[in-house]
TrEMBL record:
<comment type="function">
    <text>Catalyzes the reversible adenylation of nicotinate mononucleotide (NaMN) to nicotinic acid adenine dinucleotide (NaAD).</text>
</comment>
<protein>
    <recommendedName>
        <fullName>nicotinate-nucleotide adenylyltransferase</fullName>
        <ecNumber>2.7.7.18</ecNumber>
    </recommendedName>
</protein>
<keyword id="KW-0521">NADP</keyword>
<dbReference type="InterPro" id="IPR017438">
    <property type="entry name" value="ATP-NAD_kinase_N"/>
</dbReference>
<dbReference type="Pfam" id="PF01467">
    <property type="entry name" value="CTP_transf_like"/>
</dbReference>
<keyword id="KW-0547">Nucleotide-binding</keyword>
<keyword id="KW-0662">Pyridine nucleotide biosynthesis</keyword>
<dbReference type="GO" id="GO:0005524">
    <property type="term" value="F:ATP binding"/>
</dbReference>
<keyword id="KW-0520">NAD</keyword>
<keyword id="KW-0808">Transferase</keyword>
<dbReference type="InterPro" id="IPR004821">
    <property type="entry name" value="Cyt_trans-like"/>
</dbReference>
<dbReference type="GO" id="GO:0051287">
    <property type="term" value="F:NAD binding"/>
</dbReference>
<dbReference type="InterPro" id="IPR016064">
    <property type="entry name" value="NAD/diacylglycerol_kinase_sf"/>
</dbReference>
<feature type="domain" description="Cytidyltransferase-like">
    <location>
        <begin position="6"/>
        <end position="173"/>
    </location>
</feature>
<dbReference type="GO" id="GO:0009435">
    <property type="term" value="P:NAD+ biosynthetic process"/>
</dbReference>
<comment type="pathway">
    <text>Cofactor biosynthesis; NAD(+) biosynthesis; deamido-NAD(+) from nicotinate D-ribonucleotide: step 1/1.</text>
</comment>
<dbReference type="GO" id="GO:0004515">
    <property type="term" value="F:nicotinate-nucleotide adenylyltransferase activity"/>
</dbReference>
Length: 462
């Protein structure tokens, strides 16, 4: 029977010892086996999981495990900001994959004392005795942890020790300004340094990218000049596959949007080179000097932009979720205005309101459709959402920025006469009953700019 290996943990942050375990398991997978890493959501019994934003924890897991072949990362707990216990995770995956054996990967410290019913599983896990007796565990031995055979659960397989290390040691070293190069991969170390994680400091303003560029070059293949520039840059840098620390995007805002939606889980800065019309999210550059400029020691400014997390229900009752970088909206499907109930953070604000379009945008998307509909222009990274409407029939309505944590829901009223359809970054979702829009807890993109790029001036010139 094929197996599904579930490796859950806080990974706060993931170290080389975590990566070694995953690499060892991945190397032994059968053709139909699967290996899934599950970073846990906020835990009331483990306050350190709340020290970082959920987005930073998601990024660290993607950087640590995302490039290991055949490894999947389930960000559900982080996206929903919940802590799902192992008993429930097991039930969920058994329902999803009834023809697979579910195996849980845990450390030897979790089972220590099991012979006397004193293991962490017995003492603190939900349905601990049942979990101990029924679940199949892969127990990886840890240096310095004493675990005798009598401590092991009834259904187990042992994984021999790999590397020494602990997340707590990594956090302590960072706080004490000590090197962590021997405990984490370069990608993890660079991300932690760039965002000043675990330092006790709160970042204000853009981050600084001061690394030697190893770019993945992505050029809009519909334009011969962008293809030629892309080839020159690729030939100049020759970055090995999977070792890039930034993504150079050559094209316009639309191509940048497409690239971000496709590659955001690489969690490296997107450095845009403008070959479009406005290029608000990109940098102007001199084609004759760009290779030398990128090969010199650059100090880029990076702004982190959260994507939108959208949930929607079609008229047939089918529910789906997706991400948007710029905006999401509902509009009329017929010649009549739509009647929409609008809720914010679960509270009804308009019931109903008549309009042609209701749109929510990110700061990065505020210079697109939102601006054309009368919204404010925001610099990328601004912690605000935009809610705007077109042809709104209400004396109480006004387009306005909203706090980044606001959740917006559009519900169709009188759907038979006034059908409502939805869009996500311009992608049609069809006729909908409702749409929920909020900031994603896990999906972010870093936009990189040259020091001389003046975003405020670009906004004023729109």
């Amino acid at each position: 029977m094929p197996k599904i290996f579930l490796y859950g943990g806080s990974f706060n942050p993931p170290g080389l010892h975590h990566e070694a375990i995953v690499q060892k398991l991945a190397s032994k997978l059968g053709p139909d086996d699967r290996l899934i890493v599950l970073p846990c959501g906020p835990r009331p019994d483990k306050e350190t999981t709340n020290d970082l934003s959920l987005a930073s924890r998601a990024a660290l897991c993607d950087l640590a495990f995302g490039r290991i072949p055949r490894v999947e990362i389930d960000l559900t707990d982080l996206e929903q900001s919940v802590f799902t216990r192992s008993f429930d995770i097991d039930q969920r995956y058994r329902a999803l994959y009834p023809n697979h054996e579910i195996c849980h990967v845990i450390g030897a410290d979790i089972v220590a004392g099991g012979a006397h019913g004193l293991s962490e599983i017995h003492r603190t896990w939900f349905c601990g005795q049942e979990v101990w007796n029924t679940l199949h565990f892969l127990v990886h031995m840890r240096h310095g942890i004493e675990c005798v055979p009598e401590d092991l659960p009834p259904h187990h397989t042992i994984i021999e020790p790999t590397l020494r290390g602990s997340s707590s040691e990594i956090r302590e070293r960072i706080f004490r300004h000590q090197s962590i190069d021997d405990l984490v991969s370069p990608a993890i170390g660079q991300y932690i340094a760039r965002h000043q994680l675990f330092t006790g400091r709160i970042m204000r303003g853009p981050a600084e990218f001061q690394e030697t560029l190893r770019p993945l070059v992505v050029a809009n293949d519909r334009n011969e000049s962008t293809v030629a520039i892309g080839k020159r840059l690729s030939d100049a840098f020759q970055t090995p596959i999977g070792e890039h620390n930034c993504i150079v995007v050559i094209g316009g805002d639309g191509f940048m949007l497409h690239t971000i939606r496709r590659l955001w889980r690489d969690h490296v800065p997107f450095l845009g080179l403008n070959r479009g019309t406005k290029g608000f999210l990109l940098n102007d550059f001199d084609e004759t000097k760009i290779v030398d400029q990128l090969q010199s020691h650059l100090e880029l400014k990076t702004y982190t932009e959260s994507l939108l997390y959208i949930e929607a229900e079609s008229v047939d009752g089918t529910q789906s979720n997706m991400l948007a970088f710029n905006d999401a909206w509902v509009d009329r499907l017929s010649g009549q205005t739509i009647w929409t109930r609008v809720l914010m953070n679960g509270e009804v604000k308009f019931d109903p309101i008549m309009s042609d379009i209701m749109l929510v945008s990110t700061a990065a998307g505020s210079t697109g459709y939102a601006y054309r509909m009368g919204g404010s222009r925001l610099i990328p990274g601004t912690q605000m959402l935009q809610l705007v409407g077109s042809c709104v029939c209400s004396h109480h309505w006004k387009n306005e920025p909203l706090p980044i944590e606001t959740s917006i829901r559009f519900e169709a009223m009188n759907q038979e006469k006034r059908p409502m359809r939805g869009f996500c970054d311009g992608v049609a979702l069809g006729e909908l009953n409702w749409m929920n829009i909020r900031r994603s807890a896990t999906a972010t993109a870093e936009l990189a700019f040259f020091p001389e790029t003046d975003l405020q001036r670009r906004i004023s010139e729109l």
